C-alpha cells in the first residue's frame, strides 16, 4: 500500500512507463510505415505487443525500489520484524498493479495505431488471458530480479540481462497464445490453451521459487 500511496501522490512511475510505452509505439509506427498489408501486421502483432510490455516493465521494475534506496528506507524495512515473503508479496502486487494500469492505457493505443483498419477475429478478446497470466509472471519474477540488482553498478543493464533470459519461456508462450487469439484460425486453439497452461505453470513455479528465495536475496 505504501508504494501505491506514494505513486498516487507523485505519479512518477506510471507517467514514465506510459511515456516510454508511447515512445516505443512511435518507433513501431516508423518501422512499420511501409507495411501496407494489415494482415501482415496482425500476424506479428502478438510479438509487438509483448515486446512493448517487456520493455515497459523493465523501466518500472528498475524504479520499483527507487524510493527506498534514495531515502534510505530499505534498511528500515529489513529491520522490521516481518517475514521477507510479505515484502516480496507487497512489491510484486504493486508492480503488477502498475503494469496493469499501463497496459490498460497502452492497449487501446496499440489497436488504434496498428489494427484500426484490420478486420479483427471474434477471438481477439481472448488476449486478456495471456495478458493476465504473463503480467503476473513478469511482476513476480521481475520483483525478485530487481531486488537482486538493486545495489549493483549498471543495474538497468544487469536487470535486462537477467530478466530477458529468465522470462523467455513465459514470453514465448504468451506471444504464441496472443497471436492465435489475434488470428482466430480454426484448429489452432489447442495451441492457445496449451500456451496459456505453460505460462500458468511457469508462473506457479517461478513465483513460488521467488517467494522461497526472497529472504536470502534481500538479506544478502
Provide the residue-averaged pLDDT: 82
DSSP helix count? 10
> What's the total count of β strands?
0
Regions with little confidence, pLDDT below 50 for 5+ residues: none
Distance between the termini: 25 Å
- C-alpha Rg (nearest Å): 18 Å
- Structural class assignment: mainly alpha
Main beta-sheet annotation: none
**Strand proportion:** under 5%
Helix content: over 70%
**Shape annotation:** globular
**What is the H/E order?**
HHHHHHHHHH
Describe this structure as you would to a colleague.
This protein is mostly helical. 81% of the residues lie in helices and 0% in strands. The protein contains ten helices and no strands. The chain starts with a helix and ends with a helix. The model has no long low-confidence stretch (mean pLDDT 82).
Briefly, what is this?
By secondary structure, the chain is mostly helical. Helix content is 81%, strand content 0%.
What's the topology here?
Layout: H1 2-10, H2 12-31, H3 38-43, H4 45-62, H5 66-71, H6 73-79, H7 84-114, H8 128-148, H9 155-183, H10 189-219
Amino acid at each position: 500500500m505504501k508504494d501505491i500511496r506514494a505513486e498516487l501522490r507523485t505519479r512518477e512511475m506510471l507517467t514514465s512507463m506510459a511515456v516510454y510505452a508511447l515512445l516505443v509505439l512511435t518507433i513501431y509506427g516508423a518501422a512499420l510505415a511501409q507495411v501496407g498489408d494489415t494482415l501482415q501486421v496482425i500476424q506479428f502483432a502478438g510479438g509487438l505487443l509483448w515486446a512493448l510490455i517487456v520493455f515497459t516493465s523493465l523501466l518500472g521494475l528498475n524504479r520499483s525500489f527507487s524510493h527506498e534506496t534514495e531515502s534510505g528506507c530499505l534498511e528500515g524495512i529489513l529491520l522490521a520484524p516481518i517475514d521477507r515473503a510479505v515484502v516480496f508479496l507487497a512489491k510484486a502486487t504493486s508492480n503488477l498493479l502498475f503494469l496493469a494500469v499501463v497496459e490498460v492505457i497502452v492497449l487501446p493505443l496499440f489497436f488504434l495505431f496498428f489494427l484500426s483498419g484490420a478486420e479483427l477475429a471474434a477471438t481477439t478478446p481472448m488476449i486478456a488471458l495471456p495478458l493476465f497470466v504473463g503480467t503476473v509472471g513478469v511482476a513476480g519474477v521481475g520483483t525478485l530480479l530487481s531486488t537482486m540488482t538493486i545495489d549493483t553498478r549498471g543495474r538497468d543493464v544487469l536487470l535486462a540481462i537477467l530478466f530477458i533470459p529468465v522470462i523467455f519461456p513465459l514470453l514465448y508462450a504468451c506471444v504464441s497464445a496472443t497471436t492465435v487469439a489475434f488470428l482466430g484460425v480454426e484448429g489452432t486453439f489447442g495451441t492457445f490453451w496449451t500456451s496459456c497452461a505453460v505460462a500458468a505453470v511457469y508462473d506457479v513455479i517461478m513465483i513460488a521459487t521467488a517467494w522461497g528465495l526472497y529472504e536470502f536475496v534481500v538479506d544478502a
